[in-house]
Amino acid sequence: INPKKYKEAFVPSPDGSADIFLDGIAARNRALNGDVVVVKVLPPEQWKVLYQNEVSGDINERTLANQMVPKAPDVIVEARYNEDDEVIGKMKNVVIIFEQKHSRAASGFLKFLPNKNFAMFSPVDHRIPRVNVPLVDCPADFVSRPGDYENVLFICRITHWPADNNFAEGRLAKTLGQAGEIEPETEGIMTEYDVDFSEFSEEVLNCLPQDLPWSIPAHELSRRRDLRKECVFTIDPATARDLDDALSCKQLSDGNFEVGVHIADVSYFVEEGSVLDQIAGKRATSVYLVQKVIPMLPRLLCEELCSLNPLTDRLTFSVIWKLSPEGKILSEWFGRTVICSCIKMSYDHAQSMIEAPDKHFSAEELPPCSTNHRIHEIKEAILNLHNIAKQLRAQRFESGALQLNQLKLSFSLDKESSMPQGCYVYQYQDSNKLVEEFMLLANMAAAHQIYRTYPELAILRRHPPPQSKMVDDLQEFCDQMGLDIDLNSSRGLHRSLNENLGNDEYAAARREVLTHMCSRAMQMASYFCTGALKDENSFHHYALNVPLYTHFTSPIRRYVDVIVHRLLAASLSELLYLHKLASHCNDRKTASKRVQELSSELFFAVFVKECGPLDSEAMVMGVLDQSFDVLVLRYGVQKRIYCNSLEGLKAVHFRKVGKRPEMTLVWEQADPSKESTQQVYYPNSVFVINQHRFGLNKCAQEIE
C-alpha cells in the first residue's frame, strides 16, 4: 500500500508480468500492507492500463513487473471504483486474505467524539484504517480533558473490521508517551512491526544452565577438537557484546596457511523443541536499534555463555581450511570444537595493524591479551588473513560478484539520556573486509556441506536477479544522469560503479546515488528449503554470483544459523517445517531491517531537531511531478522531498527536457518588494539542503 496515497495498492503478479494495481480501499477488502492475498483477475477485455503520465509518479516505483517495449503499461488496473469514502463498496479485487502478515497494531492519536461511547483512533501510518475504540480503554480524564492527549501516542490493536465499514474496531493496548520523543516512538515502531521486546519468561530462563559460573562438562570436552592452545581471536565493533565469530591463522611449513572460522555453538545450549528454542524461532532475529539491541536469546547466552569472550573456554562450531597464499582451498574440515580466544580486538585495533605492519605494538595499545600468545604472533596472523582476504575479494569480483555498500549513519549518544549528541558516516575499513571475506567463505562452505548431505532439507539463501522492468527503469535513470553503466550482469554493474563515474569532486556522490538506485532495483534475498524448490538454477545468489549460499556465522542473532548448525551436526528435521521456518525467518528479517532503518531515521530527526541547524550538500537522485529524491551527501541519508510540504514555496513547474525530468521551484521572499527566487532540480544536480525548509527534522514516522 502506497504510504503517501493510501488508496493505491499493488500486488506483484506471480507470473512476472505487470503488477496488479488495486485502486481504492474497497478493492483490497480489508487487507493490510504485507498480507498474502487471493486476487480475482478480471477478463482481459475489462482491464484498463495506465501509463506513467496518467498516474502519480509513485506508481512507477512499484511496478516490479517485466515491461514489454515500446508501449507496455506500467501497471494493469484490475478495476476502478468511485465508492464513497465512508462506506466500502461491494466490489472487491481481493477475494480473501490468505495470510495476515501485518501485526494489526499501530501507533497513533485519540480524537474525542461528542455523544459517542467510543473514541476515534487515527494511526500515524495512513495505510492502516481509523479505529473505533471504547471509551473505557481511554485514560480516565480523556472525556473531560481530551486536549491533554492531542500529542500523546497510543498503541491500538485492530480486533474486528466489518466488511461494510471503512472504520475498524479495536482496543487500546498502551499509552506510549509524547510523540516525537525517542522511547515512545521506538516502542511504537517495534509494536507495529511485531517485534517481541518483552522480557524472557521464567520458563524460558529455566532452559539455561542454572549452576553459575558455568564450565564446560568434561564429557563434552572429550567429544570435541581442542583448539584452546591455538592463537584464536575475535574482531568486532568496539561496543559489541555478542561475539559469535572468531578467526585463527597459522603458517604451515609448506608455505600454505591453516585458517579457521570458529562460530559460537549456540545449538548446544538451545535444545531442539525446548521452550527456549520455540521463542528463539519465533523471534528469528535480534533487532539492532540505534540505542539498544532486542536480543533473540536471553542475555546470559548472548553476552556470556555463547559469546566468544577473551580468555574464556567456549564451545564452537568450526570450519578449518588449508589455503594457499592466493586463497585457493586445498582442504576443508567441519566439526565441533572448543576454543579460548586470546584477545578481543576491535576493527580499529586490527586496522591499525594492517596500516602499520612494521610497528611494534605495546600491551598498553591493545585490550588484555593471553600470556600464551605474543602480540607479534597475533599481528602476523591478522596481516596474513588480510593478504589472503585481498586475494579472495579480488577473485570474487573478477568472478562476477556485486557489492552495493550504502553509507551507514552512526550516532554518538549521551551515556545517561541516550539522546543523540552527534552523527557520522560509519567507515568501512580493510579490517571489516577481512572479517567479511572469511565469513562469506564459511557460509559458502556450510551451504555446500549441508546441501551435499541433505539435498532435500538444506536451508539456503537465494538472491534472484533484478527484474527486467526495474533494470529498464535504472537504465533510463542512468541515461538521464549521462552515465555509461553496464547493467547486463552483476560483474558489469560492479565494474561500472567503480570505474565509470568520473574523477571530479562529485564522483563519490554519484557512486552513492547510483548505489541507492541499484539497491532499489534489486530483489530481496531470501531463505528457502531446497526440497521446496526443484530447479537448482533458482538457488543462485545473484549479488555473490555463487550457486549455493547460506547463513552459518551468526547463530547468536539469527535463528536460521542455529538450524544450519543442527544440519551440519547431522540433526534431521521435516521438509514442511523447514519450508515454513524459512518463510518465517524471511518475514522477521525484513521487519527487523525496517525497524533498524526507522530507528536510525528517528535518531537522525531528533539529532537535527536538537543540534541543528543542519546545512549540507545534497544530490538529486530522481524527480517526479510533485516530489524529488535526494541524497544528503554529508550523512548518506536518502530523503523524498514533497513539494506540498515545503515552507515558503510559491509555485512548482515540472517538465521533461528530452528524457531528463526537471523541476523548477519558485520561492517567496521575506521582503514582498523583492522578486521570487527560482531553483532548478534534475538528476545529478547538487544543491545545499536546509533542515527547516526541506523538513529534515520530522520524526521518523512522519517521514514514513
Automatic annotation (TrEMBL):
<keyword id="KW-0131">Cell cycle</keyword>
<keyword id="KW-0498">Mitosis</keyword>
<protein>
    <recommendedName>
        <fullName>DIS3-like exonuclease 2</fullName>
        <ecNumber>3.1.13.-</ecNumber>
    </recommendedName>
</protein>
<dbReference type="InterPro" id="IPR041093">
    <property type="entry name" value="Dis3l2-like_C"/>
</dbReference>
<keyword id="KW-0963">Cytoplasm</keyword>
<keyword id="KW-0464">Manganese</keyword>
<feature type="domain" description="RNB">
    <location>
        <begin position="224"/>
        <end position="574"/>
    </location>
</feature>
<keyword id="KW-0694">RNA-binding</keyword>
<dbReference type="InterPro" id="IPR041505">
    <property type="entry name" value="Dis3_CSD2"/>
</dbReference>
<keyword id="KW-0540">Nuclease</keyword>
<dbReference type="GO" id="GO:0051301">
    <property type="term" value="P:cell division"/>
</dbReference>
<dbReference type="GO" id="GO:0008266">
    <property type="term" value="F:poly(U) RNA binding"/>
</dbReference>
<dbReference type="GO" id="GO:0046872">
    <property type="term" value="F:metal ion binding"/>
</dbReference>
<keyword id="KW-0479">Metal-binding</keyword>
<dbReference type="GO" id="GO:0000956">
    <property type="term" value="P:nuclear-transcribed mRNA catabolic process"/>
</dbReference>
<dbReference type="InterPro" id="IPR028591">
    <property type="entry name" value="DIS3L2"/>
</dbReference>
<dbReference type="InterPro" id="IPR022966">
    <property type="entry name" value="RNase_II/R_CS"/>
</dbReference>
<dbReference type="GO" id="GO:0010587">
    <property type="term" value="P:miRNA catabolic process"/>
</dbReference>
<dbReference type="Pfam" id="PF17849">
    <property type="entry name" value="OB_Dis3"/>
</dbReference>
<keyword id="KW-0460">Magnesium</keyword>
<feature type="binding site">
    <location>
        <position position="245"/>
    </location>
    <ligand>
        <name>Mg(2+)</name>
    </ligand>
</feature>
<keyword id="KW-0378">Hydrolase</keyword>
<dbReference type="Pfam" id="PF17877">
    <property type="entry name" value="Dis3l2_C_term"/>
</dbReference>
<dbReference type="InterPro" id="IPR012340">
    <property type="entry name" value="NA-bd_OB-fold"/>
</dbReference>
<feature type="binding site">
    <location>
        <position position="236"/>
    </location>
    <ligand>
        <name>Mg(2+)</name>
    </ligand>
</feature>
<feature type="site" description="Important for catalytic activity">
    <location>
        <position position="244"/>
    </location>
</feature>
<dbReference type="InterPro" id="IPR050180">
    <property type="entry name" value="RNR_Ribonuclease"/>
</dbReference>
<dbReference type="GO" id="GO:1990074">
    <property type="term" value="P:polyuridylation-dependent mRNA catabolic process"/>
</dbReference>
<comment type="similarity">
    <text>Belongs to the RNR ribonuclease family. DIS3L2 subfamily.</text>
</comment>
<keyword id="KW-0269">Exonuclease</keyword>
<dbReference type="GO" id="GO:0000175">
    <property type="term" value="F:3'-5'-RNA exonuclease activity"/>
</dbReference>
<dbReference type="GO" id="GO:0000932">
    <property type="term" value="C:P-body"/>
</dbReference>
<dbReference type="Pfam" id="PF00773">
    <property type="entry name" value="RNB"/>
</dbReference>
<keyword id="KW-0132">Cell division</keyword>
<comment type="function">
    <text>3'-5'-exoribonuclease that specifically recognizes RNAs polyuridylated at their 3' end and mediates their degradation. Component of an exosome-independent RNA degradation pathway that mediates degradation of both mRNAs and miRNAs that have been polyuridylated by a terminal uridylyltransferase. Essential for correct mitosis, and negatively regulates cell proliferation.</text>
</comment>
<dbReference type="InterPro" id="IPR001900">
    <property type="entry name" value="RNase_II/R"/>
</dbReference>
